[in-house]
Design brief:
mainly alpha
Length: about 475
C-alpha cells in the first residue's frame, strides 16, 4: 500500500473519533426534550448537562489529560484504551433513571471525547503527506458532520411518531412494563440512539488499536536528549523569514531539551517557549470565540428551533439534519481545494457566512418557515468552512512533535471549559421560551467578529510545507 493510501486509511479510522464527538453532543441535544419530560428537568438542569458534556467541561478535562499523555506515551496509546471509556459513558446514559446518573454518563463520555481529540488531530497531520494534510483534516471534519446527520436521522426514525417508534415501544414495554408512563416509554428513543454510538465506538476501537504509531512521535522519542539551549541568532532569522511569508510575528525562546521527556518536562517546555505561548494564545482566542457560538448551536439548536421557532421536535431534527448535510457537502468540496488555495481567504469566507444567519435573526427574526430553513442552511455551509478546520490544521502544524498534542490539549481545555460556563450563561440570556434570543444573537455576532479579526491578523502561511520545515522555521533545529 502506498503512503497516500495508507494516510487516507488511517485518517478514516481516526476520524471516527470526530463522529463520536459530535454524535454524543447531538444525541444528547436531539433527545434533550424527551429526557426533560421524563425526569422533570428545568432549563438549569439542561445547562448543567451541556456544561459537563462532550460539548464543554467533560471534553475540557479529557483534553488536558489526553494531550500530554499522547506526547508522553504516544498517539497509539490513546487509541488503544480511550474508546473503552467512551463506551462506558454511553452505557451509563443508556441506563439512566435519574438526573445524577444522566449527568455522570454525559461527563464520562465528554472526558473520553476530550482525551481523543488532541491525539486524533495530531496523528492525522503527522501521518499525512505535505500536499494532503489539509484534505485529511477536512475528511476528519466531514466525519464531525456525518455524525450529527446520522444521529439526527436515527433520532427522527426512533422518536415518538417516527417510522421505527414501534420498535422503541416494544423494547420499552419489555423493560419497564406495559403500564409505564408515556414519558418513560418515549425516552427510550434516546436510549436507542445512544446505543448506536456504543456500536460505532466498538468498531472504531477495533480499527484504531491496529494502527501503527506515528513516525514523527517515534523519531522524536528516539532522539538523544540535549542540554538546555539559549536563543540562537539562526532561529531568529528563521522566524523572521516565516513571518515575511504571512506567519505570526514572534520571537523565539528555546529552552528545555529535544527528544523524549516526562509530562512535566513537556509542560515546562510549552510554557517557557515564547513562540509556543503566543501560538497557544492566538489559536485559543480564534477557536474560543467561534466555539462559544458553535457549542450553543451543537447542543441547544433543536431546543431553539422548538421554542424560538415554534416547530415540533421532529421538524427541529429535520432542520438540524439538513444543516449537517450542508456541512458535509461544503467540507467535501473544500477538501479538494484546501491544499491549493489561500487558507486566509477560506477562513474569512467561513466567518462571513457564519455571521450572516445571526444577522438575519436580529433583522428579520426566525419566526417563519423560510427564515428557519435559511438559518439552518447558512450555518450548515459555515460548518464546512469553519474555524475548527483551521484550528485543527494550524494546531497540529505550529508546535513541535515534542508537545504538539499537549498544546492542543491545553487549548481544548481552555476553550471547552469556558464553553461550559457560557452554556450556563446562555440559558439565562435565552430565557425559558426564547424571549432573549435577539440579545443572544447580538452576542454571537460580536464573538464571531472577534474570531474574524484576530484570525486574519495572525493567520500563518503553512500551506505546502512539511511539519519538520514549519518546526525548523519557528523553533530552530533543536526541536526537529
Amino acid at each position: 500500500m502506498n503512503k497516500t493510501s495508507s494516510s487516507l486509511k488511517s485518517t478514516l479510522a481516526v476520524s471516527l473519533n470526530n463522529y463520536l464527538d459530535a454524535g454524543a453532543i447531538v444525541a444528547g441535544a436531539s433527545g434533550i426534550t424527551l429526557w426533560q419530560n421524563y425526569l422533570g428537568l428545568s432549563e438549569m438542569h439542561l445547562g448543567w448537562l451541556n456544561a459537563i458534556s462532550a460539548n464543554a467541561l467533560g471534553a475540557a478535562i479529557g483534553a488536558i489529560i489526553g494531550g500530554f499523555l499522547a506526547d508522553r506515551f504516544g498517539r497509539k496509546f490513546i487509541f488503544t484504551y480511550n474508546l473503552l471509556v467512551y463506551m462506558l459513558g454511553v452505557l451509563v446514559v443508556m441506563l439512566s433513571v435519574n438526573f445524577p446518573m444522566l449527568l455522570c454518563g454525559f461527563l464520562i463520555t465528554g472526558i473520553s471525547v476530550g482525551v481523543g481529540v488532541p491525539a486524533s488531530w495530531t496523528y492525522i497531520s503527522e501521518s499525512s503527506e505535505v500536499h494532503n494534510r489539509g484534505r485529511n483534516i477536512c475528511i476528519s471534519q466531514m466525519s464531525w458532520g456525518v455524525g450529527p446527520m446520522v444521529i439526527l436521522l436515527f433520532g427522527m426514525l426512533f422518536a415518538p411518531g417516527g417510522y421505527l417508534y414501534s420498535i422503541v415501544e416494544t423494547i420499552a414495554h419489555a423493560v419497564v412494563g406495559a403500564d409505564a408512563a408515556t414519558t418513560a416509554v418515549e425516552v427510550f428513543s434516546s436510549r436507542v440512539v445512544f446505543f448506536t454510538l456504543f456500536v460505532v465506538a466498538f468498531v472504531a476501537w477495533n480499527l484504531q488499536r491496529q494502527l501503527e504509531e506515528s513516525k514523527e512521535f517515534e523519531a522524536m522519542k528516539n532522539q538523544d536528549p540535549l542540554p538546555a539551549l539559549p536563543v540562537r541568532e539562526g532561529a531568529e532569522s528563521s522566524e523572521q523569514a516565516s513571518a515575511s511569508q504571512g506567519s505570526m510575528v514572534t520571537t523565539p525562546s528555546l529552552t528545555g531539551r529535544a527528544g523524549g521527556g516526562s509530562v512535566a518536562e513537556n509542560i515546562k517546555l510549552l510554557f517557557t517557549n515564547r513562540i509556543a505561548v503566543r501560538t497557544v494564545a492566538y489559536l485559543a482566542i480564534i477557536y474560543l470565540t467561534w466555539n462559544l457560538v458553535a457549542s450553543v448551536m451543537g447542543f441547544f439548536l433543536p431546543h431553539i428551533y422548538e421554542t424560538a421557532g415554534g416547530v415540533s421536535n421532529e421538524q427541529a431534527n429535520w432542520l438540524s439534519c439538513v444543516l449537517w448535510a450542508c456541512t458535509v457537502g461544503t467540507t467535501a468540496i473544500l477538501s479538494r481545494f484546501i491544499d491549493r488555495i489561500s487558507h486566509k481567504f477560506v477562513y474569512v469566507l467561513g466567518l462571513l457566512v457564519a455571521i450572516s444567519p445571526w444577522a438575519m435573526v436580529v433583522t428579520t427574526g426566525i419566526g417563519s418557515t423560510a427564515s428557519l430553513w435559511a438559518f439552518a442552511i447558512l450555518w450548515g455551509i459555515e460548518g464546512g468552512l469553519s474555524v475548527q478546520i483551521f484550528y485543527a490544521l494550524w494546531g497540529s502544524e505550529l508546535f513541535p512533535a515534542k508537545f504538539r498534542a499537549g498544546a492542543q490539549g491545553l487549548m481544548f481545555f481552555l476553550v471547552r471549559g469556558l464553553s461550559a460556563v457560557w452554556g450556563l450563561v446562555f440559558t439565562y440570556i435565552y430565557g425559558e421560551n426564547g424571549e432573549g434570543f435577539t440579545l443572544a444573537a447580538w452576542c454571537m455576532i460580536a464573538l464571531l467578529i472577534i474570531s474574524l479579526v484576530i484570525g486574519v491578523i495572525g493567520a500563518p502561511n503553512t500551506r505546502g510545507k512539511s511539519l519538520a520545515q514549519i518546526t525548523r522555521e519557528r523553533y530552530g533545529e533543536e526541536y526537529n
